[in-house]
């Protein structure tokens, strides 16, 4: 038995002012096939989880690799990314034929300037060269876009069960276990796909509490009781402008009827929660008012999700800083911004110097900016170690960085914001979030893992940006208005497609 493992993973933001070329992808990793095993085997990621299951399998499969490309979220990928990936993957597959399976680590919501569904294109290209019975299994992000074509071309699909995402490796393990079970299984699993006509704000739900956690719990119960082998709820991330979008449910069972029943049940329940996922947003001024109120518990975390680099926004919006300065607020506050020219100026001025700084709008001309006299507190090479679960210990590089002070406001300016939900992003550069009154975090939900243990209050703010939580404000061109939130279909009845490929080739 021979299995090839490969990865192409990024979340795209159609509304980002920037495109993601190979240089941008280097913010994550671009691994050649012969580098994957040594680099990712012990990393808490989907590929690491797949390798672990394969190496422990009693069936002793031979494990071979394609390339592993993984990037921080960003604007749609340039064609060179897919070309570079396929020019390594297809020869690796051909050199290893016949293969029993290919395991992919995908996000699911990767868009390029050529393809709305890049993962679907990759799988199509792979199907064309592998034998008909070759099992194709994929691990996806919970925010993946799973259209009918992608579902129908894969034998196994597993999505994250946690948000904030902390089960990257476990999702890889689930994918590998089901993929192995499908190879030459006497009773291979059957997968059912049910589209759900909704997109909702990613900042409005998480699995640490509330109705979405309960729904995941219900799915787990279906697995624990044996009704299903696996399930995934794909809440398509809302910054993806594609012409035929959907959220989706995948259910995997030993027989078609059970898979279809599970998919319909979960899809109906997911759609039923649509109103519960409406974001509750406060204006930036209302959050500042709250933080200025002595009754508030500090630090107040202002969630600036609209400008989250994790969601592909450019991280260069100074909307929060602007209000703090305009109000002459005396709050001890901290914000982060991606602005290479401000960093360059800080290095020219030097530590202890004062100068006028213009900050914001480095990549997105629509961003709010500030212009004010600032003091250079410190200069950095921009390296820090993440502490966030799933990335713990990973070294992140912001590029040259500076901490600038404007009154009581500290601004961490850097080249590229990496892992904005990790408190180490501030802490490593001398800004201890616990000691501030107000900290603006450019993340949707990932930050809750690191911040929840010490946050006084967490308030989602109505800020501008490519990842705006109020979906109605996003400049969609392709998305049809037949989905929720534009259309609310109280009589929605889910339909499940059973993917029969698994039976066809046995
Ligand atoms: Zn996600």
Describe the structure.
- The chain has 15 helices and 20 strands.
- With 506 residues, the protein is of the alpha/beta class.
- It has 2 domains: 2-277 and 494-504, no CATH class; 284-469, no CATH class.
- Strands 12-13-16-17-11-18-10-19 form an 8-stranded mixed sheet. The chain has a 6-stranded mixed sheet with strand order 2-3-1-4-5-6, with helices on both faces.
- α6 links the parallel β5 and β6 (156-159).
- It is globular.
- Zinc ion is lined by residues 141-143, 165.
Main attributes of the structure:
alpha/beta; six-stranded mixed beta sheet; 506 residues; binds zinc ion; globular; 15 helices; 22% strand; disordered C terminus; eight-stranded mixed beta sheet
- What is the number of independent domains? 2
Number of helices: 15
How much is the radius of gyration in Å? 23 Å
Oligomeric organization of the protein chains: single chain
The number of E-state strands comes to 20
- Class of secondary structure makeup: alpha/beta
Question: What is the end-to-end distance?
Answer: 16 Å
Helix content: 25-40%
- Major beta sheet, specifics? 8 strands, mixed
What's the rounded overall pLDDT mean? 95
Poorly predicted sequence stretches spanning 5 or more consecutive residues: 502-506
Overall shape? globular
Content of β-strand:
15-25%
How are the strands of the biggest sheet laid out side by side?
12-13-16-17-11-18-10-19
Identify every distinct bound molecule in the structure, by name, code or SMILES.
zinc ion
